[in-house]
């Protein structure tokens, strides 16, 4: 068994995982098992990008207009208290750990709250996003 991913939806999935763990022929010693909280939802992702787009249009940042992608980096860095290291080229800096695609539902909820708070502090009037379930 080179690789398998199971989303636990019920007892049958738990039983399957337990059977696999006990099967020494198909799951050799040294195999890694990872349990991870559910990742962000598509609705959370759509809301995040809508809010970032609205901030991008409404907020000047030190005399500049930033793109939605730039705002994602700025706000994610704030949420995660991201470390910054010097880049390869002189005068450049690289923030570490900026990905949101691997965020859990809880982490993305925290980021959305930060986006709302940041926008409210700067007078952004967010419009509602209709999410399709």
SSE topology:
Blueprint: H1 11-22, H2 42-58, E1 60-61, E2 64-65, H3 68-80, E3 84-86, E4 93-95, H4 105-121
Antiparallel strand pairs: 1-2, 3-4
Helix pairs in contact: 2-3, 2-4
* Net shape: elongated
Q: Provide the succession of SSEs.
A: HHEEHEEH
Kindly report the CATH topology of the largest domain. Answer: NinB fold
Low-confidence stretches: none
Under the CATH scheme, which class of the largest domain? Mainly Alpha
Number of folding domains?
Answer: 2
CATH superfamily of the largest domain: NinB
How many strand elements? 4
> Helical proportion?
40-55%
Strand order, sheet with most strands: 1-2
Distance between the termini: 35 Å
Number of helices: 4
Secondary structural class = mainly alpha
Query: What proportion strand?
Result: 5-15%
| Radius of gyration of CA atoms, rounded to a whole number | 20 Å
- Looking at the overall shape, the CATH architecture of the largest domain is Orthogonal Bundle
Structural overview:
The protein contains 4 helices and 4 strands, in the order H-H-E-E-H-E-E-H. The chain is mostly helical. The radius of gyration is 20 Å and the shape is elongated. Strands 1-2 form a two-stranded antiparallel ribbon. It folds into 2 domains: 35 residues, no CATH class; 80 residues, NinB (NinB fold), CATH 1.10.3790.10.
């Amino acid at each position: 068994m080179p690789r398998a991913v199971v989303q636990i939806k019920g007892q049958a999935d738990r039983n399957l995982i337990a059977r696999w763990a006990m099967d020494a022929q198909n799951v050799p010693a040294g195999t890694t098992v990872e349990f991870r909280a559910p990742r962000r939802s598509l609705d959370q992702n759509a809301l995040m990008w809508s809010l970032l787009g609205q901030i991008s249009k409404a907020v000047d940042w030190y005399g500049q207009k930033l793109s939605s992608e730039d705002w994602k980096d700025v706000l994610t860095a704030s949420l995660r208290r991201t470390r910054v290291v010097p880049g390869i080229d002189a005068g450049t800096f690289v923030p570490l750990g900026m990905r949101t695609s691997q965020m859990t539902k809880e982490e993305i909820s925290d980021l959305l709250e930060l986006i709302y708070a940041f926008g409210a502090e700067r007078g952004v009037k967010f419009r509602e996003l209709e999410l399709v379930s």
